[in-house]
Write a structure and sequence with these properties.
Strand order of the largest sheet: 1-2
Number of strands: 6
Strand content: 15-25%
Radius of gyration: 18 Å
Shape: globular
Largest sheet: 2 strands, antiparallel
Length: 151
């Protein structure tokens, strides 16, 4: 007879039911891997973009196929019901595998895919770091710092 699943295993199995492993990684036409932690964007030859891990190897995303947070501002993040509460799947998965996320930290999708829940594609960062990375990925120039007022 099988032993009942622990809470951690039950959450992991509930999440993985709605996950599709999608290989979005690639190596460019010269055979060179893209830099670590950079979304490489669409490739003209394959029409795919990708995330390359710290070893320079393509790393497939675990894409959530279930419901998401909609199309509005901040939309597109995976959602699921857990104990009667609607929760962000990538945050639940991170917390389930790594523990508590401190109040001043957020999870940044290194692969730039909002529906990806793979924990090694997520990094705990500050809000400011997350904004800078988002702007860099979108090609927005860095914001200038304000000069301090003189009294």
């Amino acid at each position: 007879m099988n032993a009942p699943l622990s809470r951690r295993e039950a959450i992991r199995s509930k999440i993985m039911v709605c996950v599709e492993i999608v290989d979005t990684g690639y190596v460019d036409a010269r055979g060179m891997p893209s830099p670590c932690h950079v979304w490489t964007g669409p490739d003209s030859g394959t029409g795919r973009g990708g995330y390359v891990d710290a070893r320079g190897m393509p790393s497939p995303c675990h894409v959530w196929t279930g419901p998401d947070s909609g199309t509005g501002r901040g939309g597109g993040y995976p959602r699921m019901s857990l104990d009667g509460q609607t929760v962000a799947v990538h945050i639940v998965n991170w917390t389930n595998e790594h523990g508590f996320i401190p109040g001043k930290k957020q999870l940044d999708h290194l692969c730039r895919t909002r529906r990806c829940i793979r924990d090694d594609h997520l990094e705990m960062v500050t809000h400011k770091q997350n904004q800078k990375r988002r702007d860099a990925a979108m090609g927005v120039p860095p914001r200038r710092r304000r000069k301090a007022r003189r009294p």
